[in-house]
Write a structure and sequence with these properties.
The chain is α+β, with helices and mostly antiparallel strands. The protein has helices at 2-24, 75-85, 107-144, 150-183; strands spanning 41-44, 47-50, 55-61, 64-69, 92-93, 98-101.
C-alpha cells in the first residue's frame, strides 16, 4: 500500500523533471533551437495550429532558423505570428519562407536566459514539493484509518522526504548543466 504511494510519487516527480527539460528547450542558448518556436501558433483555417504542423522548421546553422510552410499563402501569417510572439528577432519573408537571423548572444542575454532556467527549476521544485505533500497526506490518512501504525507512518514519511530530496538534487543537477550550456560562449 505504501509502496504504491512511493511509485505514484516517483512517477509524478519524473513527469515534473521531464516538463522542466521540455521548458528549457524554449530558452535561447548559444546555438538556436527550433523549439524556441514551439509555443507559436497561427490561425490555420479557423484553428490555432502550431508552426510545426504547417511548415518545415530547420536550423541550417547556429544563428538561423528557416520556416518553409507547406502552403505558400501562410508565409504572411507565420511572419505576423512570429513578430507578435516577440522572441527577440524580426522575421524575414522572402515570399517562399520565413527566416529568422539570431545575433550572437551577449553576456547579459546569457545571464537573463540562465535566470529563466533557474525560475523554471524553482517551479519544478514547487511541483515536486506538492507531490511530496500529497504523498504525506495519503500516508497520514492510512494512519488515521488504522491501516498502518504510527511508526510505519513515520518511516513512510521519512522515505517520502528522502525521495523528494533526491528529486530536488536531480533538478539542481539539470539546472547546473543547462546553466553551463547557456553561459558557454
Amino acid at each position: 500500500m505504501v509502496n504504491e504511494i512511493y511509485d505514484n510519487m516517483k512517477e509524478n516527480m519524473d513527469k515534473a523533471l521531464e516538463s522542466l527539460k521540455h521548458n528549457y528547450q524554449t530558452l535561447r542558448t548559444g546555438k538556436v533551437q527550433t523549439s524556441i518556436l514551439d509555443n507559436i501558433t497561427i490561425d490555420y483555417y479557423g484553428t490555432q495550429t502550431g508552426l510545426a504542423q504547417v511548415a518545415n522548421i530547420l536550423a541550417p546553422d547556429a544563428t538561423t532558423i528557416t520556416i518553409a510552410p507547406w502552403e505558400k499563402n501562410l508565409v504572411g501569417d507565420i511572419e505576423q505570428a512570429i513578430a507578435a510572439a516577440n522572441i527577440g528577432v524580426n522575421p524575414n519573408n522572402n515570399g517562399e519562407a520565413v527566416q529568422l537571423f539570431f545575433p550572437p548572444m551577449t553576456v547579459e542575454q546569457r545571464q537573463i536566459s540562465a535566470k529563466g532556467a533557474k525560475t523554471m527549476t524553482d517551479d519544478a521544485k514547487v511541483v515536486i514539493r506538492n507531490v511530496r505533500k500529497a504523498a504525506n497526506d495519503k500516508i497520514k490518512k492510512l494512519e488515521k484509518d488504522k491501516e498502518i501504525t504510527k511508526d510505519e507512518s513515520k518511516a513512510a514519511q521519512d522515505e517520502v522526504q528522502k525521495i523528494t530530496d533526491g528529486y530536488g538534487t536531480k533538478a539542481d543537477t539539470i539546472l547546473k548543466a543547462k546553466e553551463i550550456e547557456i553561459l558557454k560562449v
